[in-house]
Amino acid sequence: MDVIEAFRALPWFYVGTVLVLGLIVGSFLNVVIHRLPKMMESDWRQQCIEFLHPEEAEKSAAAPAPRYNLVVPRSNCPACGHQISAVENVPVLSYLFLGGKCSACKAPISIRYPLVEALTGLASAYAAWHFGVSGAAVFAIVYIWALVALTFIDADTTLLPDDITLPLLWLGLLVNLGGMFTDVRSALVGAVAGYLILWAVYWGFKLLTGKEGMGYGDFKLLAAIGAWLGWQMLPLVILLSAIVGTVVGIAGILLQGRERGAKLPFGPYLAAAGFIALFWGQQLNLWYLGRIPT
């Protein structure tokens, strides 16, 4: 019996395996969420130096900075520099075993690390259960991983990196060449419409107020969601993200005293709506259309 047959014969084993894989990937996504924006800022800074001060760029090239990417250096405690061992890096369990503190200096570890791991693991397992043993499950899980990373990067930095949004967009179009989640025409129109809708909102808001209401990363994320799910899901995604964003914004003002004009990243709400639409979009569309008077 090969692995695929084993997964089909034992659904609980299949879902459990994906859960463990999702937890492991969630641990890596914590690294991506923390390091990718820093890598982008470092690259932007270097480009500015090369353009404005080429002589300094030559000096820095002669004495390159230590490597910093998604693999190097190994993770360490930000408070004391203690290098995290493999035993201390087991998703969720290590956090619980250590009591949410560094084993060396006892500095608190943000609870968000195990939350990202748990979210990624549970969402991946649900996708496996929902789609079964299939290519759709594999690609849905990849889609979910990208949304998780984008959600927390945008929440931290108000950035939606092209390194994630653009590959996600192109992969959505390629996946739907065979009609996996929607037909290829709907995917193509969804990508174009997703970008143009928020582009139009951006410029309309800017012309009326003189301010920028969102970033170009939001356009690309909605285009990617449209490429994966088709243009038919875009109204639902926009509506859901607007509702959730409004509720969270009002809650922030009432509970945390956030200023009314404070910048609120829109990417997490687009990502949440894109997740909902992946699993329940058709049912929600049918329910919504059924309530429109004819």
Keywords:
single chain; 294 residues; mainly alpha; globular
Topology:
Layout: H1 3-9, H2 11-52, H3 54-62, H4 93-97, H5 112-131, H6 135-157, H7 162-175, H8 184-209, H9 216-229, H10 234-256, H11 267-290
Helix pairs in contact: 1-2, 2-3, 2-5, 2-6, 5-6, 6-7, 6-11, 7-8, 7-9, 8-9, 9-11, 10-11
Quick structural overview:
By secondary structure, the protein is mainly α.
The average pLDDT score comes to: 90
Question: What is the alpha-carbon Rg in Å?
Answer: 21 Å
Strand content: under 5%
Q: Helicity, in percent?
A: over 70%
Largest sheet: none
Low-confidence stretches: none
General form:
globular
What does it look like?
The protein has 294 residues and is mainly α. The chain contains eleven helices and no strands. Helix 8 runs antiparallel to helix 9 (216-229). It is globular, with a radius of gyration of 21 Å. The model has no long low-confidence stretch (mean pLDDT 90).
